[in-house]
Amino acid sequence: MAEKIQQIQENPDKEKAQLKQRLSRIRHTIMVMSGKGGVGKSTVTANLAASLSLEGYRVGILDGDIHGPNIPKILGVEGQQLLGSGDGEINPIEAAENLKVVSVGSILENPDQPIIWRGPMKHSIMRHFLKDVNWGDLDFLVVDLPPGTGDEPLSIAQIIKEAHAGSSPFAIVVTTPQDVALLDSRKSVKFSRVLELQLLGIIENMSGMACRIAENPSTCSRRAGASSLHRNSRFPSSGPSPSIPPLSRTPTTGSRSYSGTMIRQRRLHSGISSKRF
Ligand SMILES: Nc1ncnc2c1ncn2[C@@H]1O[C@H](COP(=O)(O)OP(=O)(O)OP(=O)(O)O)[C@@H](O)[C@H]1O
Ligand SMILES: [Mg+2]
Question: How large is the average pLDDT for residues 178-204?
Answer without folding.
Answer: 89
